Amino acid sequence: MSLLLSPEEQAIAAGHDGAAMAMRILAESARLLGAPRLIPIASAHIDGALYHGDSGTLFAERLVDGGARVAVRSTLNVGALDLMGCSRIRLEEPARGMARRMMEAYRKLGCEQSWTCAPYQAGHRPAKGSDVAWGESNAVVFCNSVLGARTNRYGDFLDIACAIVGRAPDYGLHRPENRRARLVFDVSGLSASFLASEIAWPVLGSLYGREVGNAIGIVTGITGHPGEDALKAFGAAAASSGAVGLFHIAGVTPEAPDADTVLAGAEPDMVIRVTPEMAAKARLGLSTAASAKAIDAVAIGSPHLSLDEFDMLERLIAGRRLSVPIYACTGRHALSGLEQNGRRKALEASGVIIVADTCVVVTPIMPELAGGILMTNSGKFAHYAPGNTGYSVLYASLADCVESAVIGKPILTDIAA
Amino acid sequence: MSAAAEILVPGRAGQGEALVLTAPISFWGGVDPKSGRIADVRHPQHGQNLSGRVLFLPGTIGSSSASAVLLELVHNGHAPAALVLHEPDAILLLGLIVAREMGWQTPMALKLGRDLFETYRGCTVEVAEDGSLAPAA
After folding, report:
1. How near does any CA of chain A get to the CA of B33, in Å?
2. Would you give the DSSP letter of residue A313?
3. Chain segment A159-210, per-residue pLDDT in tens
4. Which residues of B91-122 are buried (b: 16+ CB within 10 A; e: fewer)?
5. CB contact under 8 A, A53 and B88
6. Are A232 and A138 in contact (CB under 8 A)?
7. Does A24 touch chain B (CB under 8 A)?
8. For residues A40 and A133, what is the distance between their CA atoms, to the nearest angstrom?
9. What is the per-residue pLDDT across B67-121, written as a single tens digit (0 to 9) for each?
10. Residue A46: its pLDDT value, please?
């Protein structure tokens, strides 16, 4: 089936302005995706404003020069600079200036200055069943799975093209028939104490992503809602180890009141019964420096920390002084809450470095350190830190991360899967 | 061993030494946008450079910023000579679509079954304008 553009869409594509360029990019992508038409969208989340090099800045400025503006509500994912001035970014000129120009260009296109990878915790929560065009793999998987809105993984450039045109290709997860589960990921064989622990979600997410790839699965064996931050961690880990855009959890996520509903009465193609050994191996696989004797830093907040997660961090630090820094990445939506009652100052006095608008794996913040060891409770940081920062990683719970930061050596609590 | 591959995104013809990846890769985080070096320490081809190579991709994973990395590689002259994909990945190929809109010269992206990838390992591969792939004489 080939792409059919309406006469109006064809007229826009034939123009010479920024909207025409956006329409042509959208139409070319729709053709590659095999979409038969474009459909209207309710909102967009734009991942394209992160500086990877001058090319992205030149692209955004070409759209601005062409007079383009977003047609729907559009939040922005992280940029390469901390515009709130919480942390020092080691990006040197001329890259620094180009990164700033890029962030400015997206503002001029009419995007909201949200600068977060957790827009769903910053007031951008599209309605269940609505079509949207979101970028950033963790935001996409959360939007589909936890909110029940419909989006594919819109990469850089296509996200802003959809936002300007106000349409998206009709394919993939926009279509209800493509949202049903085809495999079962059964975690009922794991201990209740492991499933109740914080590390269960990033570890299982990492395993899930590797096992299912881009297929849609349903997780069974979970009793009770684990909380939004746990689902956020699961989705982020799954979307970094596999191409996961949508998961279901029986009795938890909105399209899966039970397994039968989301399997649509069909037998699953595969049932993955997760064993304690598989979970233990997945946990070990998140570390590249499992036997480290010392640590140089802790990084948390991928996806960006919520205020609830800051509450937990404060409770665990309990006013103690850290001997290695904890980089706590968050968005300005959480920062405003932290500014109250001197909470931010108290955390910083302990040795926490708050990073706003960006994070430690997308832009140079942590010192360059040969053989550096980074401890993290984030499955996504564990996945990306070695390639992007040069640090080896040691994965652990937030409680272990904090205790380790206090003494500067890894403390690992055994939680049997 | 010459094969006619489907052209996913048109671009210039070219040739380069084959780089056959044996595992899916995430361009963002997995490839250095400044040099084209494979930076993912967990990837079997870690340390290899895809600049100027005919790159055979069995699959792609991970971040939705893959297109930005590819666009940057095109802009700074470190793109592969051609990309050969087992299946079209619109996120990655968007990098080429945008590069064409910007008026920059782009490598071709082709579709070819991954079972044929191994036949090109170790060869210098010539990519013709019609999308055919042949070992260079």
Report:
1. 7
2. H
3. 999 999 999 999 999 999 999 999 999 999 999 999 999 999 999 999 999 9
4. bbbbbbbbbbbbeeebbbbbebebeebeebee
5. no
6. yes
7. yes
8. 10
9. 999 999 999 999 999 999 998 888 899 999 999 999 999 999 999 999 999 999 9
10. 96
Distance CA A379, CA A203 (A): 7
Residue of chain B with shortest Cα separation from A78: B65
Inter-chain CB proximity A156 and B62 less than 8 Å: no
Backbone angles phi, psi at A168, to 5 degrees: -140, 160
CATH architecture of B3-135: 3-Layer(bba) Sandwich (3.50)
Domain spans of chain B, in order of start: 3-135
Least Cα distance to A50 among A328, A358, A301 occurs for: A358
Q: Do A157 and B63 touch (CB under 8 A)?
A: no
Contact A243, B61 (CB under 8 A): yes
Region(s) of chain A under CATH 3.30.499.10: 7-176, 297-407
Q: Give catalytic residues of B, as residue numbers.
A: 63
B 48-87 near A (Cβ less than 8 A)? 60-69, 71-72, 74-76
Token output for A123: 């007031």
ipTM entry: 0.91
Compute the Cα dihedral for B43, B47, B51, B55 and give only its sign.
negative
**pLDDT for the residue B137:** 63
Work out the minimum CA distance from A16 to partner chain B, whole angstroms. Answer: 11
A32, A54, A140 member nearest B64 (Cβ): A140
Query: Would you say A396 and A199 are in contact if contact means Cβ atoms under 8 Å apart?
Result: yes
The token duo for A410 is 């890894």
Please list, in sequence order, all residues whose beta carbon lies within 8 angstroms of the beta carbon of residue A353, skipping any fewer than 6 positions away: A86, A87, A325, A326, A327, A328, A365
Measure in Å the smallest separation between the Cα of A324 and chain B Cα atoms: 25
Chain B CB contacts of A58 below 8 Å: 75, 102
With beta carbons under 8 A apart, name residues in chain A contacting B65. 47, 50, 52, 155-156
In the stretch 231-260 of chain A, residues with CB closer than 8 A to chain B read: 239-243
Peptide bond into A202 cis (omega under 30): no
**Total-model pTM:** 0.92
- Please check whether the domain covering A297-407 is classified as CATH 3.30.499.10: yes
Q: Under CATH, which architecture does the A7-176 domain have? A: 2-Layer Sandwich (3.30)
